[in-house]
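Researcher: Here's the sequence for the chain we discussed earlier.
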Amino acid sequence: MRLTRKTIAKVIAVAFVFNLVVMGAGAWFAYHEAPPIPDQVVGPDGETVVTGDGIRDGKEAFQQHGLMNHGSILGNGAYYGEDYTADALELKTTYMRSYYAQERYDTAYDDLPTGERAAVDEVVKEDLDGQYDGGNIEYSAAELYAHQEVREVYVERYHEGSHERGVPEGMIDSEADARQFADFAMWTAWFSHTDRPDGDHSYTNEWPYAPGAGNDATGAAMTWSVIAMVLLVAGAGFGIWLYRSVRLPEPSAEGLSVPEPGDVSVFPSQRSALRFVPVAAGLFLAQVLLGGLLAHFYIERAGFFGIEQLFGVPILQILPFSIAKTWHIDLGILWIAATWLGAGLYLPPLLTGHEPNNQSTYINGLLAAVIVVTVGGLGGIWLGANGYLGDLWWLLGNEGLEYLEVGKVWQFGLLAGFGLWAVLAVRGLKPLLDREPVYGLAHMILYAGGSIALLFTAGFFFTPETNIAVTEFWRWWVVHMWVEGAFEFFIVAIVGLTLVSMNLLRRRSAEKAVMLQALLVMSTGVIGVSHHYWWVGMPDMWVPIGSVFSTLELIPLVFILYEALGQYGAMSESGGFPYKIPFMFIIASGVWNFVGAGVLGFFINLPLINYYEHGTYLTVGHAHAAMFGAFGFLALGMVAYMLQLSIDPKRWDGSWLRASFWCWNVGLTLMVFVSVLPVGFLQLEAVFTGSYAVGRSLAFYNQPIVQTLFWARLPGDTLIILGTAIYAADIVRKRFVLRASEDDPDVDDMAVAEGVLSDD
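Model: Thanks. This is the structure I predict for it:
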């Protein structure tokens, strides 16, 4: 079966409209089906416990003080502290039991005999097993008592500080804000155990698992897990059929003239694009150093290898986990994005031999803007979390949502940066854009970059006052659709461009391969975001939709891995192939993408597994393998390619890059498979045999076997840090051996461009 580029383009357009309709309808449902924020929560005598505005103020306190990067809400956030929803529900259940034990038997709950304790447990379950039919939330006397007690626990824990939990003093700067945060957490606990109107399960589909509160997995979670496994087998068969049926040309060095690095001229704009690399390398090094600190915080929650005790330096107060985690995530996004921006502006002259007027100056301006946004955003996070920005905290400081931590102003700056990048890419690719159809390779790059910017706009659809369920709906548009939609699209487009620039594929062939893989990514990854909606207060229609599309996301990942292995085969056939180091990174990216996003992603996205696993260390393994392993290695591969073209072949030395490559791969393997995943499986068992709150408790993390596994991260983390230090040093030394750029570039100076432009 032969598919034309035009046919694939039409199918992509249909898939795009289909995705838009489904997710647009999902947005409408998000607003209409979100858990209600009542005007008031009242006690048994009608007294006001908290108002709706108080709950919203609690959400603002939660975001302003960076609590999502200390613990999590509804399972989303950091895994260092408690999940506030599960913790509030567990505390509520505990205090209600104490209330009824004292009221009915005049003794402490723990001192009751088995029969009376069971009777109290049943009364608590009956109290919590209610249905909301509108109006005020009405508490029983036991619920009122529990709510008041939880407030005081949160004041003691998050305002006064708890070093054993890794909470610095004054994390929430006032008692009033700490009580409002408790009100917000208790509201999320309320809708996690309260059934929807005319429904038989809670707003969160009975998440978190809390047997004492009556929360357990629904039948739909089991049913759709089985269906997902059936779909996986069917999807594997479909993938094999597709490979056998659709004839895509494989990259091959045979009979083609692969340009030697010395034969390719370097233009001024490419030298400017290379300046993104050392900036990104510095951000990368800072990220992995913070990662080492974060990993050790799980062992020594108020210090770092005894520094606090030896020198009196209060590490926790100076750099608490929440801020370190925030910077760690943002730095990871920034260094990868900066590298991709540079690569996207370096590649066009290879394909066109075209140097627009003042392109180099504009690229330097974009780099300066990226640096300003980076410094402003990271600085604003610290200033906002520490209360220095007043009411502007969410605009100039820290918005306080995982992956969207920086303030709205800095987010807008990033969006403007993507827009400027698109303009510069259009200028650089203009000779190709003018000659090719709208589904051509140069257009694909613009669509991929544009989709990243477009999806980022979803982050502007909410404010700190927006319902947390609606906030999570839009936040996952950015996070998931970036990673498993736009970024995957960008990967295949960049790799396609790279193969063409190496003369390993004709442009037409690359276009067809990129479009087919983009179609598979778009057809599964966009709606696949819905697996993040199962437990956050969205309607239960997302359980079947998310199960189906999350499972099918594995198909494009198999394609990408297959392409990477095919590229490796082509490289191996040619003993004199000059770009082996860049290809090492591209192949590693495909492998880790399959392992992290594919294998580990599929496993944790089975609804029944995800119900117990959601927000545990199994997600940490998936995230690190997918984000660094896939997107990071691709970025690093592009750096290796750019550097090899920009350095005199006689002075090219790839030994340091090879050393970094193996440090990263071995380190990531050790970190994920020796430490992170074993902790995750132990955590899964703890949740399944106890409750979700048990699996996220301090007692779980302090178990000797878990602490030993945390120490087992040290070799892997050390190798990753070492590899990054070698890489950063190599970038610095290579800056001194770059070739001079052409003063008056012309298409004839570019070894690849003429063949690309003539490939119509």
